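Weekend entry, working from home. Most of the wet-lab plans are on hold until the incubator is repaired, so I used the time to fold the two sequences that have been sitting in the queue since the last round of cloning. Logging both here for the record. First:
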Amino acid sequence: MLKPRQADLTRHQLLQSAMHEIHQHGFQGASLSRILDNTGLTKGALYHHFPNKLALGYAVVDELLAMYMQSVWLEPLASGDDPLHAIEQAITTTWTEHGRELLRLGCPINNLSQEMSPLDEGFRIRIDSLYAAWQQALEQGLRRGRQAGHLRSNLDIPQTAIFIMAAIEGCFGLAKNRQSESAMQVCSAGLYAYLQSLRAE
């Protein structure tokens, strides 16, 4: 019988390895054998925590990708009254810290959305909840910015939030497809110009 702390550590190792494997190969191409090889754990340990590959994939979304969304996009928007600066800083920080990986592999959330949403309702619902949380954080930040007088008073908050999300994911997707940092730079510059156009005159 696994001790609680050992069990938690084993589960965490499996999730981390699974997230890396899914980011590299997609969920459908992910190999349980490679996931185990990267951890040194046994099939018994895997099935003690996750009854099948689908359950493991769901846990990656519910736990690790939710944490990724929280740290990268939600927390920067949670305080302050200048959401445009927070968005720009989040993009810059993400690219500085993870640019090489994002350029090669793309955004892990967007990858799964494109791959699995048409195929599995469980994935679609989980990923949609991540995007919904991001949209809500953006809307709250934009409202604070408008109330503080930083943004145009006639701004359509929900429409703007969705467009910003789509633009960010589109920039990462284009850079990945072209394997081009310059594509990311050009796309980001266009996005930043759009954000500045939202400011109150």
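Second, folded right after the first finished:
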Amino acid sequence: MRVGVITGGTSAEREISIKTGIEMMKNLDKNKYKAIEIQINNRRDLIDKLLKENIDFALIALHGKFGEDGEAQEILESLNIPYSGSGILASSLCMDKDISKRLMKAEGIPTPEWIAIKKHQELNYELINRIGYPVVVKPVNGGSSLGTYIVKNSDDIVDAVLKAFSYDEEIIIEKYIRGREITCSILSGKLLPIIEIKPYSEFFDYRAKYDDKASEEIVIELDEELKCKVGNICRKCWSLFKCSVYGRIDMIIKDNEPYVLEVNTLPGMTKNSLLPKSAKSYGLSFTELLNSIIELSLKINR
């Protein structure tokens, strides 16, 4: 089977996408698949290379816009090429932090209080004060903590907002919750071992996610009551957003209550990424994880 590893892309997360692609290429089962790197720069580039390479399956290593938002999946479906992970709807819903939080709130899934602001829209200081400092400012469509800032008082809010707008046309200002940060990896709807993240910086930022020694990441066993809460929330998110194959749900736990930060339909797969670490703890090597992702994805009728 000819497996095209689609990497690169147009977003600010291009560097991480390339790293994910490198790890996928390195760990693909050579007895089962012929790996073909497809590094792209834009939409047209993806179409041209897909037509040229004549692949049987697309292993998506893209992150951020045009990849994680359902656009690349839409092209693949139009060309009748099966691909890894969630479909167009789940990808687009989870990518938009404002819409995904609205849906979670409607379904009773706890998520930190927030407001969304579009570029050139006037800041509503009354609403921000109602949320209460500190707050987290971040792009609506983005990942890897790029353009994400913790703001402790009103003096710094405008600067953080302007910086975040350099990454996206819309941002959210979210209540900062100090607590235990955990990430829940999902494979075929099953919760894999939970990892607690202890960044050495103020929060799990870009450097903490991708540098070897910028954070401590530990597989943990939660007490039964809390584990049950976390598991139920993961199942509700998975069903709500119509996710499939694999993903990762990030949460903060405060006073024994979990709050969902976001749902990732194409989590990072670099050598430092959380999903492969969780899978390894479960007993799956990187190669076995990729085998599972491909096999599960091929069973889906898009």
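Plan for Monday: verify the second prediction. Residues 64 and 142 are 5 Å apart (CA to CA).
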